[in-house]
Amino acid sequence: MRRVTFSRNYTISLSRTCQCYCKYCAFATHQAHVHPPEEVERMLDEAVKRNAKELLFLTGEKPEVNPIVAAKLTSWGHEDFTAYVIWACERAMERGILPHTNIGAVSESDLARLREVTASQGLMLESSSERLMQTVHAGSPTKHPEVRLATIEAAGRLKIPFTTGILVGIGETPEERIESLEALAALHGKYGHIQEVILQNFVPHPNYYGQEPAEIADEASRRRWTADADSGLSGSEGGEGEPGGLPLPSWACPVSIEDLKFLITETRRLMPDVGIQVPPNLSDWWSELVEAGATDLGGLSANGDHISPEHPFPSPHQVRKQLAPEGFALTERLCVYPQYMNADWMEQGVLDVIKLKYWSFIPRGSSGRRNLEDIDPGLAPEAIAKGREGAALSEDELTALFSENRPEVIEMMRVAADGLRRELAGDTATFVVNRNINFTNICVVGCAFCGFGQGKRSPDAYESTEAEFVGRVNEAVEFGATELCMQGGIHPDLDLEAYGGWLKLAKQTAPQLHLHAYSPMEINHMCETSGLEPDAVFEYLIECGLGSTPGTAAEVLDDGVRQRISPNKLPAARWVEIIEASHRAGLRSTSTVMFGHIEEPRELARHMEVIRGLQERTGGITEFVPLSFIPFNTLLGRTHGVEEISIEENLKHTAAFRLALGKSITNLQASWVKMGLEGATEALRWGVNDLGGTLMEESISRMAGSQHGVRLEVEELIDSAHRAGRQAAQRNTEYEILQRYPDPMSPELDFVAAADNAPD
Model pTM? Predict the structure, then answer.
């Protein structure tokens, strides 16, 4: 699944007074126009009400050249227009909204002043063609390519995260379009400051006869955002080259979808690391342009497009609905791209707003999002040595491991984790032949990290019938499965007897299968609906056929994290209580962690302390399974900007988990559903000794957007082990070896493993 981003912004056209006379513009006026401070304050309050994270300040070019505008600025106590923009940016930040300014070609000194109060800035190059100065840009001195490029270069020298782009269809030739992109690429290659390039197609505008474009845009946007999501999503109604149905002016040139697809390809070739934005309100093509490689839809402004006010933006919901069937996930971003969210590129005051209000958008430098505390760099090597020996690590030492980003230290971590794995589990990579059955996805919990759970009325909701369930159990038997893993959403109508009924039906159908079923969250639901304590619930479920319990629903066992990502989830202490009850009942359980979302290194450290302490008390955990967060179809991914963790970070965490467990839990499993089989194979070098199961069916990760499939054949798991230089063995749920598969390429390898016997 590929991400497409957007920014939730609100636009303030601070002044439309402009010294330029661009033939295509419906925004600018040559009359005096500037919003007074009290009106700006009102609009900022409205931006807060509309949940904007970005405040886009638009202006004409050099509005202070108008003496009336200049006089008003003086009366409000501002020395120039830039000072007024700075004041407005400060007011926006006080409300927790990040300013992005696009106020035309300004001096380097003005850019520097604005840098102190903006998260990012922007200026459209439009075109590098000087020829257009005689046509569409006649009488527009600041539209000269040299002036525009000088401003963009000055932004690079000042290390300002910058948005720019080209305007196509204003009479330029195809060659001039490429020359414009090449000019931007040259500056980006020199300074690295261009975060995105906008490829904007010209649309003809009607004559507004003095009407306020901002008011037209806001009203059009309100109508569109409140329209039925099933209505058409095209931003125009005209034919090719005539968006909106208006004829092209004589100086313009038609733009086809093929033209824009070509420009997307060229932009990616010239600037492979920048975002490519296409406006979704200016043509019917936008979804096809996303398929062609566009990565961003810009600011889906809550109050419309002030430049093209008659073309309202679709709502994020409307866009998401159109993109999802094509395999694209729409997610929110801030106006500043993640790679620039650091002190090198932003003033500390602006960065503090992000850390306070939008810290989940800060890219993962090591593990967590904020990573505000200083970690003693000397702790990690010491912790690695202690972990290799199996000694318990302190919270600070664990935090250091999860925070580590030095390549040489991470390699030390890998070697130690791999050595500990070999000592505990030998050189055999195990797997289980099993089948997952998610018997319902109806759920009332509402976790922000989940793409699986659905309301009862959702068109995507399902409940398995008994016939469907029996058919799936029989498929598992035919496949050679030894284990049936059963979990579902927290269905409000399911009670203890219903859960027991699924177990009885499975046992009646295939008594030889081991039933690994019901998360602590489901057990808690059974307790609440029956009025029984966990011990009594487990006693009943064992009578029904339960063989072991999955230690899922753990996420991060820190209530601060749990409250942020799922306030309706059971508390950490209750999770521990239920797992302990399962162990008292004679059931073995697995244990898990879900990482790579909003958690911090220290919170992961606390999670591992809980897991290790639990195991040292009961000895009932068979394995630990790290589950990296899949963000694509989740609320955290859509509205918090949480990106999927990199494979490198995933592997580092894997090694840290092994060292954190020490010798308490023998088996560390890689989730090929989360990492992909190639990632899981590599994880066998980072402390992992188990590849999990064949699954046959997996809905939870798939519905969150995982692209790694839902089923593996036994041969694929065997091959994975052999490619890692390991022997392969099929096991049962409790890690008893059922069949070995020696690697014919390394018959001398000693594969006698500690996994030959079930854990104590």
Answer: 0.77
